[in-house]
Structures are given as C-alpha cells and as structure tokens.
Amino acid sequence: MAKRNILGQDYDDLFTLFGTSTGDTDLGTFSGITISDNPSVKTALQEIETALEAITEVSIANDGDNRVITAVGDSTFSAESNFLFDGSTATITGKLATTEAGVTYLSVENTSAANSQASAYIFGGTSAGNSNIVWRSGSSLNLGTAASIGGAITNVFTVGNTGKVTYTDNATKQTFADTINFGANTDVFSVSATNGTIAFRAYIMCNTASFSVVKIYDVVRKENTAPIVNMTLNTGPDGTDDFTATFSSTGANSMKLNVANDSASINGDFVTTLELAGNPESYTIT
Fold it and tell me: Are 26 and 38 in contact (CB under 8 A)?
C-alpha cells in the first residue's frame, strides 16, 4: 500500500511532482546555469530569485514609433529617428551604403550640396577609385562617372523627358539621339567655348526604314562671327526624303546645330556624333 501523508496524499505523487524518486533528498541535476545541481527546494528557489533580480531594465534612448533600434555599445539601445520601418516600407534619411572589404558597392545619397544634382545614386567605387553614378536632374536621367564618391561628375549618358538621348564617349566626342517628326526640326546640341574659338566635325545620320541619309560637316568659328561650314560628305536624299542641318551662332562664344526633317511622311531617328578639336576643357556642350 502506498504511503500517504497526514492529508491523505500519496507520497509517490509528490516525488513525481518534484521530478525525484523515493529516497531522494535533493532536486537532482539541472541542464542550465541558473540552478545548481542537487539543490534543496529552498536553494533552487533562492537561485531563481537571485537571477531574476539581476536582470536590469533595457534602456532605449530617443524612443519613437516605427524607429529601428540599434546598439549604442554600452549595453543600451537607441531608436533611430532617421531609420524608420512601418512593417512594409523602410525609410532612411541620409545615406545608404553597402560595403565589403572596404569597397563600396552601392551608395545612395543626395549629393545636391556637392554636385548641384538631385537624388544621386552611386554604384561601386571607393574613395580612392572611380564611381559610376546615376542621378536625376530636373526631368532628365543621367549616367556619369566620378573620380571619387562625392567628387565632380563627368556626364556620360542623359535621357531627357522628351526621349532625347545624349551620350558622351569621352571629353572630345559626344553622341546625340533624336526622333524628329516629318516636317519638324529640333536643336540637337549647343556648343560654347571660353575664348569663342570652336572647331568640330559633325556626323549626322538618319537610319530609319526607307529614310537612310548620312552627312558629314566640318565646322569652325571664331568669337563674334558666323560659323564656317563645309559639308565634306553627303549620301544624298533617300528618294524624296532628306534633312537639312543648320549651324548658327547663338552668342559671342557659342553656336548650335538644328536639324530639320524634310520628309513629307516619315518620322526620322537621327544620330549625331560631335568630335571636338582643341582642349576639351574649353568647351561646354548642352
């Protein structure tokens, strides 16, 4: 017959409750580090109480709704007011960068203060290397390079809001792509020089189905004079379809190219390549 205490409870049930066996005088071993092995009930309860009272309250500075928590480094935390996450969208005020072994592979920042540009996105490069940059300026999307992150930008490729594409191969060569409707004309580029002396070759081609025409021009001008233009090569019209290139002064030190699509029915896709002579730093191309 099982032994019972004065309340009529089975002693075996009490051993089961404490996880011990008949004859045991302690609680046995524990797998963790809070309660020591083979303690009495009182010792075990004391060790639990001591461990709980040693837990300190977590301190979060600058707390606020949706703020991402970061470690401060002194066992405290800070809620970042410039880094928010509402469960679906992360919003960062400032700069976002990914790096590995000291190399920046992606950096997103607003460089308007340094480069007079808006919403600059920098891909790749280090502070001592080259960076490829995509940024939006006004209604245009631009691709360029910089000697360093935050440094001066050399524009390579621009897409305007009208679909006009400008490509810069190097400092002395630029390519412009325009779609010109039949009967219409557009200003392809403007060039200015610090001293007014300008010299370049322009390759203009329309490469559209049933409208294939190429013309090459050599152009020179000096300050306050009309440009001197020599058409060196001309394929002639494609049937009745042709275009007219007009080089004209726009100021004492500047000039432009306008191309008119003389076709009566075909919208033309025009590509113009500009090769500059002289010091490229003396020119401004738009």
Answer: yes
